[in-house]
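Researcher: Going back to the complex we discussed earlier. I've cleaned up the inputs and rechecked each line, so this should be the final set. Can you rerun the prediction on the complete assembly and write out the structure?
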Amino acid sequence: MHSRRELLTRAGKGFGALALAAMMENRAAAGPTTARPPHFPPRAKNVIFLFMHGGVSHVDTFDPKPSLRKYDGQPLPGSFGEGLITSRIDFRKALMRGSPWEFHRCGKSGLEISSLYPHLSEHADDLAVIRSCHGDAFDHAPAIYLRTSGSQFPGRPSLGAWSIYGLGSENQNLPAFVVMSDGAMKSGAGAYGSGYLPAVYQGTVFRSGQNPVLHLNSPSGVSPESQRETLDLISRMNRRHFAEREEDTALDARIASYELAFRMQSEAPDAVDITKESEATRKLYGIGEPATSDFGRKCLLARRLVQRGVRFVQLYCGTNLGDDWDDAHNDLLGSHTKMCRKSDQPIAALLKDLKAHGLLDSTLVVWSSEFGRTPLAEGKNGRDHHPYGFSTWMAGAGIQGGRALGATDEFGLRAVDQRKDVHDMNATILRLLGMDHLRLTYRYQSRDQRLTDVHGEGEFTQWLLTNKS
Amino acid sequence: MLNRLTIALIALPASIYAGVPDQARLLLEKNCLGCHAASVALSGLRLDTRAHALQGGARGPALVAGQSSASLLIKAVTHADPKLAMPPGRKLSDSDIALLRSWIDSGAAWPSSAAAPSAAAKWWSFQKPASILSVTIDDAIAAKLRDLNLPPAPQADRRTLIRRATFDLTGLAPSQSEIDAFAADPNPGAYSALIDRLLASPRYGEKWGKHWLDLVRYGDTSGFEQDPYNLYAWRYRDYVIKSFNDDKPYDRFIREQIAGDELFEDPEAQQGTGYYCVGPNRDMLYKVEDINRVESLTDFVDTTSSVFLGLSVGCARCHDHKYDPISQRDYYRLQAIFAPFQKNRVFLHYNNARGYDLSENTRTFKLYDIGAEIMAVKSPYQDRLRQQKLALLSPEIQAAFQAGEDERTPQQKAFFEAYVKQVTPREEEVAALLTPADQDRLRRAEKKLVSLYTTYAPGPFSPGITDVGRESPKTLLPAKGAPVEVGPGLLSALGGQDIPEPPLTSPTTQRRRALAEWLASPENPLVARVLVNRVWQYHFGRGLVATPSDFGTRGAAPSHPELLDSLANRFIANGWSFKKLHREIMLSASYRRSSRPPLGAVEKDPENQFLSHFRRRRLDAEEIRDAVLQSAGTLNLKMGGRPVVPQLQPEELYGMSQPVNNAWVVTAAREEHDRRSIYMISRRNFRMPLLEAFDRPEGVLSCSRRESSTTAPQSLTLLNGEFTLRQAQALAAKAQSAADPIAEMFARVYARPPSAEERQTSAAFLTKQSSLAGSQGGALTELARGLLNTNEFLHVD
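Model: Rerun complete. Updated structure for the full complex:
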């Protein structure tokens, strides 16, 4: 108590960097996003979650199905389509459609990846593909909620929020959970919300431009000097107010939050300043090229943020009001060509760059979509939503890549072998972060709620880390 | 920690407490009702009520009370007669049979006709409150403090008190003149008069209505990808505000919301059923109608039990509740209450509503014609223009446009996308070409269009529900093998009964009516306790039970059990009046204590559970926004009506699921933008950044207690947001025109004069900022922006 008062008095004479740093450190001890030890030694310290918004066709990317070509134009045999429903097509009537893309065995491992991903194919040996993902929501918003929060209904905390709740963050001057999207999301902000967890755990949207955080800039017309004066006034008034109430840590925390905000004002623009990267690095990510510039920048920022101790970075590729994977409804070829062109090189660059910085071992990279797309055609050129079997992949965090887990049936309809639902995925991601999904709980409505609800027994961390197929 | 331990010790399995009759009921339930109940009554025998068991089936009475040896039931379960061996192929254990015998011999008491294990759970909250009326707030608080050897804090001064009371009851700050008058009032009844004045203010309903809207997960849109408008939800919001202002008795408020359609003729009361219509809903999604219906039923069961009973029954959807005596069957009995629901429009004025529908019908018909006329005028021009523009482009591109949408090659598609905007004629290009005759036609069409909307306004409807009729769809309990049908019933652990069939002439099932009566009954052990605890929490920042929506065995134990019971009893005795309850709480010495902890309090009671002093709080999201408007003198106190969509900056409108021009239709009347926050639109997929930053809940699940977080983005928003700047400018303008700008500023923000030191600090600040900002006005704006960000402004002592 005494030393803190002393510090405050010193800080009161202006914000001496030393006093302030000490004060912040002191405060950080109690902060909700302070770094906390995991349950087990972690494999990954950070997560970069690449969310392909709108639905990526698994049978055209990571799950080759020659039978679809063989029977192209025919309906499904027998009762294969029974019991499946989706947005627009009828599984009993629609026709099978072979992939217009070739699959190649890539890397030393020979992992099969389609020609949609020429750059990513070079990293095949890093990727552990899970071909047996499945869910039961075939509309975007419920499916996105499901993939991120484990529930089709909104209002539950997202994976990112749970991660911060469990582990905190190593950089208090930047948000612990950063989200970068292409704008309008079919799910709205609920996809990265904190649900019933305290709001401090929700994702903070980074926008493009020099000032990524909302309201980071001083109001227009207010000079930095003027802003500093005003902050000092707030601080002076607050300290006078606090002097008579110094048992109240909430007041103290609010005083600190303004200094934190001020520090964020300087640190966040620096974090997103990619002019500090070499020309070669920017080029690696495709920054400057029309197709790849936007997502390339996001991927590069993801690396820069992870480097600065940001725990969880969630990128979305695709938007409800512009280019989206979901354009595959009536144009599989065009949409997937475009979206892969947008994201392939940046993602490959991210893996390469993380490795070059020695960050890949401690960073888990997850690639996922809310569902796959029907192996059956929608109209002449499209594919519909398909949650019953689809692919995701993971890399980094000590994962043994170049392998595929599980399988869908002959036509890519249903996950049949090693079926993995979202809870298995999330339990695995938490485990890699050093957390036991059974022990990461939050009491709400009289239950110790979990990200994995009552599921997650299909956790597959061991498979990921052990090199056997 | 101590609490948790206590709970763990008390949370023994409910069945331990079950008496012989309960256990017998349990045996019948488990072993017999599959074939002998309302839905399936083999041999005409039902064993789900005492009357039916006594009456018996084809073979005669199943039991003779007092004579087990003469009872067919015993004959059957002992397998004495191979032709009548029950349950078939599976004999009960000897101890079970002995239990049934002794039960019948002792009279076959049927403690509750409920179908679930009616364990006489001994958990405190399932027992009726002790019939005590006499425990006063101050005695109860003082007794515990004595136990802790903690002296209570002294009474707060009047300036603190009026600010606390005014924010608590109205969500707004008192003005400096109100404070001065109260501080100077020599009348000993001044405080009591203050509370009466605040309770009579219409602002009271706006503040306390918001608490209720949090609980019932209110929103103006339905969520998910489309996030469509729930066009008339605001009628329910206004109904809630009015109910609080009218001090509607809580039992009446419950009846109106749960079963207003079945219980009252008055449409104003029926509006209460809007309760069911203001939550998230995905019925705009495609092919998920059945899932949506189940989600709605789940939402009704979960929200109703959590809001009114303070119980989470959700666990029992999939299995018997692990901690509370709520079986899966109980859960589905509750669900069956809502199973017959259908959406309903409450006609606030029957004739007007019919008239509205008629004119809407005619208007729509006319619209088709006007639309066709406009198209007919414009399309020849558009076609011509498009052709002209296309002709300027290369043949490949032209071909891309000529190809059908499905036939385009990827290259053609790319061309199409690249040029479609360029080729599409713009409105002004068409307008420039129109002949005078066509201009005239268009003008006439537009005039007709406008005339259709000169008196356009929402219809006299309110959202609500009612039943599909007297018959309900079946409710099935998932079970191994075939699902089992369950009838409607109330929680058996609380003594709830089966709900009987309605009279033949009833237009509804009357199931919700039974639920409403049961909830609103003085006999219900939970409802009044849960409510007084909520009110207590909103005043003191923490309930006597710290888990306000969880009074089950996993919830916190009450810190002052006798006080809770006494308050609940008095609440009922006082006609379920909220305002009387507020008075009682706020007139207590405990409420009036200073927020400075007395010596030893922080060590002995760090969470201030025992209220040695008052709990300081940060203003909530809506209070902050409203208080800023109030300080700036811009607050518009207009009440009710359609939700207001205030102007936000483009960067603030990020991430919505729908195009901003559809999802954020800014209210045309600017003066509406400065109304109280409760009237601002609450979209489920998007919260106003300022409100979101200060912990406004998502509005998806019931929120019984808001977070009060402290984050850097929060400070950024309040410091740098456009809203603060605009209001600071308005505040600065007001201060500038006053004789003493600094004093005016302090009066408006803190409702007090500045101290000499503060005056000096402020003056120095203004001098410095004037030179930096270049004007006195700019400097005052900075002073305003600064003060609006201070802890004194944002907290209530």
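Model: Worth noting: The radius of gyration of chain A is 24 Å.
Researcher: Good, that matches what I expected from the previous run.
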